[in-house]
């Protein structure tokens, strides 16, 4: 049965997808280069567990909705990899030019629906990911990505009203492209999306909220559902998170989900570092 996100009778995905929610952001882009964490590198093989030594991840992707802690977690993971003697490349979502973000190629990157169809954007994105994966295989670095599997071009595909089948097919193609890198996908998740969005909006202020609303609620998905204001942004992200939950469930890669509503960052960081086999590395609080 074909499952789509393009119905307009309701703004709630459970009505259309039958998904159970329990199943399972940055401001205006500015130039920011990918950052190499640390330069004095000494190999420390003792920092890796036996399991990690035999199955090193050549790519780490930190996923989650806006304000979920992706950027901070990315930097901590990259620093820990460097401390373990594994050269890492921290790639922020605002890195410009970005190695995998296909909207960078468009005149209206902020509103890609003005320049491209969802199919065209997906094709561009897969091509960029393929080049990125090939370059990573040739290099000695472990890129640590701030989103981009979900939070990136897939977000724009969602805003452009790509069907769920199209989104799932796109995600599956990306997984196939990066599979040789043995990636680890870390999915930062909050059970209560409304609460999570309200918290990040309160922390980042009215100007940031206006920026998000003016951007994301101008897309076809929000316009056809008459989503407006902060309440519309919350509704959008409730739908979006149900979609990414479903994609995460289907993802055939090494992955881990962290429910981080309690904001116990030291514990979450420890879980990620242990999963990467970095048990000998000092904990980052």
Please describe the structure with a list of short key phrases separated by commas or semicolons.
alpha/beta, 6 strands, 285 residues, 6-stranded mixed sheet, 9% strand, disordered N terminus
Please describe the topology of this protein:
Layout: H1 13-17, E1 35-36, H2 50-54, E2 60-63, H3 70-83, E3 88-91, H4 118-138, E4 142-146, H5 153-159, H6 164-178, E5 184-189, H7 193-204, H8 206-216, H9 220-224, H10 229-250, E6 254-259, H11 265-275
Parallel strand pairs: 2-4, 2-5, 3-4, 5-6
Antiparallel strand pairs: 1-3
Helix pairs in contact: 4-5, 4-6, 7-10, 8-10
Give the averaged pLDDT, no decimals: 82
Binned, the helix content reads 40-55%
Order of helices and strands: HEHEHEHEHHEHHHHEH
Percent of residues in β-strands = 5-15%
CATH class label of the domain at 30-191 and 252-275? Alpha Beta
Alpha-carbon Rg, integer: 19 Å
Major sheet attributes: 6 strands, mixed
Could you tell me how far the N terminus lies from the C terminus, measured between alpha carbons in angstroms? 46 Å
How many DSSP helices?
Answer: 11
Question: What would you call the shape?
Answer: globular
Number of strands: 6
Q: Order of strands side by side in the largest beta sheet?
A: 1-3-4-2-5-6
The assigned CATH architecture of the domain at 30-191 and 252-275 is: 3-Layer(aba) Sandwich
CATH topology category name of the domain at 30-191 and 252-275: Rossmann fold
pLDDT < 50 stretches: 1-54
Q: Kindly name the structural category.
A: alpha/beta
């Amino acid at each position: 049965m074909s499952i789509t996100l393009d119905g307009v009778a309701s703004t709630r995905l459970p009505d259309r997808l039958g998904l159970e929610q329990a199943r399972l952001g940055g401001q205006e882009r500015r130039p920011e280069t990918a950052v190499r964490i640390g330069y004095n590198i000494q190999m420390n093989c003792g920092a890796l567990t036996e399991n990690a030594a035999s199955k090193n991840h050549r790519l780490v992707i930190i996923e989650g909705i806006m304000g979920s802690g992706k950027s901070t977690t990315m930097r901590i993971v990259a620093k820990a990899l460097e401390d373990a003697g594994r050269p890492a490349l921290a790639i922020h979502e605002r890195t410009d030019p970005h190695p995998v973000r296909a909207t960078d190629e468009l005149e209206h990157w902020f509103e890609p629906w003005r320049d491209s169809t969802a199919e065209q954007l997906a094709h561009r994105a897969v091509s960029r990911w393929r080049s990125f994966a090939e370059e990573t295989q040739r290099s000695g670095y472990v890129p640590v990505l701030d989103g981009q599997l979900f939070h990136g071009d897939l977000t724009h595909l969602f805003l452009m009203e790509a069907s769920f089948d199209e989104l799932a097919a796109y995600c599956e193609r990306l997984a196939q492209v990066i599979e040789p890198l043995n990636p680890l996908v870390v999915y930062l998740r909050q059970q209560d999306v409304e609460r999570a969005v309200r918290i990040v909006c309160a922390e980042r202020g009215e100007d940031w909220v206006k920026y998000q609303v003016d951007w994301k609620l101008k897309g076809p998905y929000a316009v056809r559902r008459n989503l407006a204001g902060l309440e519309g942004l919350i509704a959008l992200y409730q739908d979006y998170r149900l979609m990414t939950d479903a994609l995460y469930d289907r993802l055939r890669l090494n992955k881990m989900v962290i429910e981080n509503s309690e904001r116990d960052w030291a514990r979450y960081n420890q879980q990620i570092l242990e999963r990467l086999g970095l048990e000998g590395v000092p904990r980052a609080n």
